[in-house]
Amino acid sequence: MADYEEAVALHKRGSFAQAQQRYRAHLARRPDDARALAQLAVCTLQGGGEYEEAVSLARRAVQLQPGCARLRHTLGRLQEKASPPRWAEAADAYARACEKDPSSVQMLLDLARALKELDRTAAAAEAYARALELAPDHPRAHFKLAMALRAMGRTERAAEHFRRHLEIDPSHAAARFWLAACTGDAADAAACPPDMVAGLFDQYADKFDSHLVEVLSYRTPQLLLDLLLSAAGEAGAPRPWRACADLGCGTGLMGPLLRPHVSGQLVGVDLSAGMCDKARQRAGCYDSVEVGELVEWLRRVKGQQRPGQEEGQQQQQQRTAGAFDLLVAADVLVYIGDLEPLLGAAAGVTGEGSLFALSTELLPETGEGRGYVLQATGRYAHAASYLRDVGARTGWRVAALKRDVIRTNAGKPIHGNLCVLQRAAAGGGGGGGTGE
Q1: What keywords would UniProt list here (predicted)?
Q2: Which of 64, 73, 207, 428 gives 20 to 30 Å between its CA and that of 412?
């Protein structure tokens, strides 16, 4: 066993090449050691080896000991490491592992995750519930079950598990946010937690464009540009614009539409590093793309404190208050309820007459409440009257306002506000503009 024990020690230290040599030396003498085969499979993949070789080793281990839950679990983990992940194979391996060891919470959680990735949400919820039967105070199981129930439209049950999660972990911002979404109480949820948004879109970046355009029939960029150009003409705003910030640029869907109308700097800003990477790949579009939370980024620009890693010092110095004559936020404010901090910060980097084109999901006018709500989808909706009021408080007037279908969800139209704000003179604000 000396070779095996030495291999395990090297493996734990991260010396993968040496560990593989010792595993193979051990297996040369004991070719049917399923445990060593599984360890070699994991080590091979960790050391940058061939994926198919690693999976083949793990399958051989399972064949040797078909009743071993741990070996099937290892095979499932390796199936997840494929590019793209083989979720169906992983789910099958996890399900068989759970059959062999129905008392393993971790195996149930992994099974549930694979099922969720396969859009088998009800089955995933069942697996999470089974995990909670074994570990009633497991916070992640409560959170994941709540998310699955919410996706199934069972918001009351979801809220119960979000509450239980918060009893165990009161600092969990995402659980607090989703509880507010389930109950409709946005008093303590003025915006989505930034880390949650960044994490969501980092995972979503590779399939974002196709899903948004092909599945959700996303129309906001072109609709917003059309309204912006019309409003600019009526307001007599000079064009092309000198400098524009695309706030919440995502993968850059808005960038190619804006580029012909911006003579100087076109800057993209987004919370998600993954989305920013995609936006940078749009050749001839953005002059720079930066990762940042929007209000903080705007305040840094105003104070000339923003690091300029992607541009020269001269360009950075040009971005003082009044540096941008155009700001755009397409399908971004659905993640922000209270718009006053954002519009206030935006006023600090724009001069009189500058424009801010934005979109929101539509909240029908009721004359009650704060003017925005957090929906069960986790997206905010805003009333048109709220846009006028918050704009007036922060130094903007509505130059144009239109409601339209901005995308679909489950085949149903989602209505939104398309709005162009114009920076008022110092001390001014409010006012009319075109609209409904």
Answers
A1: Repeat, TPR repeat
A2: 207
> The tokens of 85 are what?
């992940």
The secondary structure element, H or E, covering residue 387 is helix 384-393
Q: Let me know: does 165 contact 172? Beta carbons within 8 Å.
A: yes
Non-local CB neighbours of 146 within 8 Å, separated by 6+ positions: 158, 159, 160, 161, 162, 165, 175, 178
318, with CB counted inside 10 A (0-12, 13-18, 19+), is middle
Evaluate whether residue 307 is within a structural domain.
Answer: yes
CB 202 within 8 A of CB 275: yes
In a domain? residue 198? no
CA 237 to chain centroid: 35
The count of structural domains within the chain is 2
Supply the range of the domain harboring residue 384. Answer: 204-423
Structural tokens at position 183: 């109950």
Neighbour count for residue 210 (Cβ, 10 Å): 9
Whole-angstrom distance, CA of residue 224 vs CA of residue 219? 9
Pair (240, 138) in one structural domain: no
